[in-house]
Give the backbone structure.
Amino acid sequence: MEVINELRALYGVAVKSWRIFLSYKIWFISDVMLGFFFVGQALLIGIGLTGERNSPALQRLTGYSDYVTFAVLGFMVLGFGLTFLSGFVWSVVDELYAGTLEYSFAAPIRRLTFFMGNVLTRIFLSLIYMSIYVPLFVVIFEVRFNFLNFIKALPVLFVGTAGMIGMGMAAAGIVLYLKDPGPFITILEMLVFALSGAMYPISILPRGLQIMAKILPYAPTSEAVRKVVAYGYEKASGEISYLIFLSLLYALLGYLSYKWSEKRARTIGLKSY
Amino acid sequence: MYAVEVFNLKKRYPKKIPLPLRKVEWVEAVKGITFKVKKGELFGLLGPNGAGKTTTIKMLTTLLEPTEGEARILGYNIRKDAREIRKRINLVAEGERTLYWRLSAYENLKYFARIYYVPKREEKERIEELLKLVGLWERKDDLVMNYSRGMKQRLAIAKALINDPEVLFLDEPTLGLDVQSSIFVREFIRKLVDERGKTVLLTTHYMVEAEQLCDRIAIIDHGRIIALDTPDGLKKLVRDEDAVEIRLKGKGTFDNLPWRMAVVDEDSERGIITLRGQVDEEELPKLVEWLVKKGAKIISVEQKEPTLEDVFIKLTGRGLRD
């Protein structure tokens, strides 16, 4: 019964979130266009810099010679990953700005359910965006990758998801303390994008940034997914083992840090508290 | 059995977020309050703005953790059993923007039904019943942003009943409402207690509201309960003395008078100030003389039936509006 109640609550939050999103129709169009132009330009810059689609340098660094395929795959993983980060932080911020956070937090629904309900809507949106982008990329840039292999890599993506949820929870905990969380979220999202290894291999980053990229869950997820798609599970075992360790660590630390933040917020009286 | 039991509850906040190397200054919002609310009782926390009423409600609804002291709601400890309490209570918070304005009334209630675990078989019926009860059924599909302030508050009350709570917390439920909406909300709250057996704890700074509605009232000021009784019991504190109301025109400040008088109303358009308090027959001419010396033009001096305002003035030397 408890599980059914929680699932119904999860669906309730997702539907609410979806309806509110739909009430801003123009955002949907701008989101789709922004995403497409952003990635499109990044792809063109990449091609411009390498001089050709198939780069021997990229092949040496990542095992992929086709830059466009490399970047589209990275973008798909990043788009999915950012969904969790954005879902968690914006579910706090949107409700704070609307003045509704107090009512939602005064209800018996579990916090994780509340956040995941919001994330669910964003995942659904992300899938819609991808279903628009990918065919366009295939047509415009002649992207070639094996979708069957990508589906095979989905379990790896789900392992990375645990870490991304943890990261989202930790960020949501920080947001509870900030007077104006907008700039923090923008910087965080940009940082995650820069260190995700979505559009370029992280090995070209300066040493310090490489370490940062390695300890965030995004780049290790992108790397593991790409390796599974290109070479299969056996050759990606090292990447997968590291990802499992990192994801579990983030999931645990994220959960604990959010719990601590919320308890602290309830104690010192921040934001809607 | 008691629905709400509060023992020496305290809450202090830091003025700014505590950071390493930052000197933290603390504000003590609630300074050790103790009271009990019986099941089926309508209990009021009456006090001016900043008295600690909202902080108390937030602690009792598990939104805030107390600094010290204990409280039990329906036997559950607010520190340890937050989720059990949340299932059995509900809240109408202060302010207008507490619902989703971009959703309809029906969609709002459906969302809250889900996060309060209302069983599927009861959901539809409950939402319909509540929307009819607060007179919003005909407008159920309208977006909340198109509702008037009064309609939004009625919807907030319907939301607060979605899980059929045993205890209802209402924070300033008529604040900012027009007269008609205030009357509707007050009558509705009374009916919830009389006809549905709900326990209600409300906060207000409207003396009339507390007097008309509440079975018992705790007067709270600067984080402390300074009196607790039935409205009649509280009024007995001033019954023997004369409640006097003086209306005057004047530009000076009439706060902190050397008598137990306080400004209870200020008509800035007409420049009329109303003072109220307890002054006996011998002292009254001295008071009038003092006011005239201060530049006041006396319009009227009337003896009045004592009200809770007089109780508050007697206990604090200030009016509830301060």
In short: Chain A has a mean pLDDT of 86. The first helix of chain A runs from residue 2 to 22. Chain A touches chain B at residues 5, 8-9, 11-13, 15-16, 19-20, 23-24, 98-100, 102-110, 114, 177, 263, 266-270, 272-273 (CB under 8 Å). Residues 1-268 of chain A form one domain.
